[in-house]
Amino acid sequence: MQSEIHYIHSVQEYFNEFLKLIINYSPKVISALFILLVGIYAIRFINKMVKKIMVKRELDPTLSKFLADILIWALRVLLFVTFISKLGVETSSFVAILGAAGLAVGLSLQGSLSNFAGGMLIILFKPFRVGDYIEAQGAAGTVNEIQIFVTKLLTANNQTVFIPNGSLSNGTIINYSLQGYRRVDLLFSISYETNIKVAKNIVLKVMSEHPKVLETPKAVVTVKGLTDSGIQLAIHPWAKNEDFLVVWSDVLEQCLNAFDEVGIVVQPYVREANKK
Hints:
α1 runs antiparallel to α2 and α6 packs across α7. The chain is α+β, with helices and mostly antiparallel strands. 16% of the residues are buried. The chain contains seven helices and eleven strands.
């Protein structure tokens, strides 16, 4: 009986201590949760305001997205440190632990850090922007988004390609959109019986009458080579980036039709020299 009374008394003491601990610690918990909730909404508000300011000042969309991502993560880290500090956790020891953990994570994620640095280089030096058509790392497509670690390309057949920023910034990049216009490179092979001057005049007429072939730079037709199968004609019209495929297809089709009308024999192949 005495042992039961002692047990009940011990339980009551533990319960009182626990209740006392809750009463003493609850203000810290409540204030920490309040700071957390306010901080989350404040970060969302700041993020929206910063994006509006960037849009109003017509800042580059790629740079805007990148800076907004960095800002929101920095604010989240600051909110987390404030939250645990309000709970009574020593921030100095936490920062030391965080630093050690950061070093370990950094060593294990060297590739990710390289991608982050590559993203910074792309944003700063702007070898391409969102909307540009590029070729890099064996892939070609329109730049859809430049993220912190990867760049998203949308290919012509609607596939999304993710390229790590580290390898992208250190490799060769071909930007087809930077100059605003491109040259279409076509290669015809015609019979040796063909009058070259007549053939060239036909091609020049086709290109001069096409509304989307640019007058400057001037379209040209040259004899590229003489092969066993025939005479190679290199055809080079220029077009705006958005008209490139249309000009490529139209000039090819219209030249073939014009050759057929005058009886010029085209050899069994028509090879494109450089279509992207």
